[in-house]
Amino acid sequence: MGVLEKELAGGVLTLKLNRPESLNALNQELLARLREAFADVAADAAIRAVVLTGVGRGFCPGQDLNELGRGESLAETLRSRYNPVIRAILELDKPVIAAINGVAAGAGLSLALACDVRVAAAEALFITAFTRIGLVADSGMSFLLPRVVGWGKAFELLALSPSLTADQALHLGIVNRVVPGERLLGEVRLLAEELACGPTKAYGLIKRELRKSVTATLEDVLEYEAWLQELASRTEDYQEGLRAFREKRQPAFSGQ
Ligand code: T3D
């Protein structure tokens, strides 16, 4: 069994970080496997939704601290190993759900924030962690966190690095839902299956719209929406959506 377990069923690929002895800390091998996995997902039309979770009691506590200080600078590590993974998730034209089964800290929290939907087990914990070891936010966290919780709260969470419970994370909008731990994968599976049966290309275009909205002016956004709606209107799923409406039935989206 490798450091990243993969299971494909019904159009949903489940990726399980599998280094439970370190709560699934990110080492070079795991980061490389994640990068490969998301590239494979992008190229495989049969995969229409992804679930990212952890094996054991942790989701991911960020960088494997036992692997630091072995020559490569942190900047190099981020540019060559972390940033490509974060970009791959954000730019993937398919929905990615984080099933946060336990602690998410440091770049492990960044990984969760890069996902499109976050569902947490009631016992999960959320820690920015960087300043606990004298570092600053990385792996996209300084971009993503203030957009979720606001500037002031983001500063507080980054500077003081408290340990947030799942309910506190829900209250701040860091997670979409909290469920009992034993129900986490079942609930996430249902959500992932619903997304995997949806208009996949429209979901991908929505991700693009949201990314654009972060830096664009209103005029840019209006024009970009018009362009993406044109693309959406050329999909088979749009034709199916219209047919289903007229025939008064549920649409059967193919993802094309
Ligand atoms: O450019 C770069 O490469 C730098 C990038 C940096 C990005 C970052 O992610 S910086 C932030 C790094 N993460 C942390 O600082 C968190 C470190 N971990 C913790 O603070 C705690 O482990 C937790 C709060 C996450 C969980 O605490 P607890 O009490 O539930 O578990 P524990 O006993 O501390 O951990 C269990 C095991 O996992 C333990 O191993 P052992 O003693 O049983 O053999 C622990 O050492 C290991 N572990 C946890 N986190 C990491 C780790 N091993 C390596 N790296 C870790 N990050």
In short:
The chain is of the alpha/beta class.
How is this structure best described in words?
It is a single chain. By secondary structure, this protein is an alpha/beta fold. It contains ten helices and ten strands. About 50% of the residues lie in helices and about 15% in strands. Strand 1 (about 5-10) and strand 2 (about 10-15) form a beta hairpin. The chain has helices at about 30-45, 75-90, 105-115, 140-150, 150-160, 165-170, 185-195, 200-215, 220-235, 235-245, and strands at about 5-10, 10-15, 50-55, 60, 95-100, 105, 115-120, 125, 165, 175-180. It has a six-stranded mixed beta sheet, sandwiched between helices. It has a four-stranded mixed beta sheet with strand order 4-6-8-9. It has two domains: about 5-195, 2-enoyl-CoA Hydratase, Chain A, domain 1; about 200-245, Lyase 2-enoyl-coa Hydratase, Chain  A, domain 2 (Orthogonal Bundle), CATH 1.10.12. Helix 4 (about 140-150) packs across helix 5. The protein binds ligand T3D.
Beta percentage is 15-25%
Domain tally: 2
Q: How are the strands ordered across the major sheet? A: 1-2-3-5-7-10
**Cα shape:** globular
The CATH topology assignment of the largest domain is: 2-enoyl-CoA Hydratase, Chain A, domain 1
Q: What is the gyration radius calculated from CA atoms?
A: 19 Å
In the CATH classification, which architecture of the largest domain applies? Alpha-Beta Complex
Bound molecules: ligand T3D
The run of helices and strands is EEHEEHEEHEEHHEHEHHHH
Helix content: 40-55%
